Please model this.
Amino acid sequence: MREAGLKARVTKVTRRMPGLKRFIAKGENRLLARDAATAPDQVWVADVTYIKLQGKWTYLATIMDQYSRRILGWSLSYSRTTELTTTALRYVIKKGRNPKNVIFHTDRGVEFTGSVFQSELVKYGMHHSVNRPVHCTDNAFMESFYHSLKGELIRQTYFKGIEELRSELIRYINKFYNTVRLHSGIGYMSPINYEQMAA
Model:
């Protein structure tokens, strides 16, 4: 090529990602157009996190009331599917919370955007809201909870199996996080005390 006076042309290679534009355009962040929640059962936020257990990943889906920071329900499984998130939501409904007209905010994961979970939201009269693409801080409440959970319970702890992990999650969430742990964002009160004050 040098002898012939030719120069190589570099072509930018772009990976085609079918459906990416449609994925980005689907759904809206309903929280941007409103103020923060002023009472329980106005905005619920949810997410899924990974917990490694004896070399295998387990998945924890959690639902929080944005107003009080109370963990309303959760589900733990070896599978990351819509069944995981649907189980968590049904647990919250079974406990007697009022989901009618609640804004339910999540990321864009298939566990929340899949048709099975979407049908549950419609059934209970809830309005889905999603993070903007590449804006994980749109769901900062859940990110903060998982940071606390992993720092205070998961790290440096050995669990014999998923049932022991489940029982420790029950203890941490129900007997500590919701009832005892003080939160700076709600005036250094526990979530349950804060809800009782609002009532």
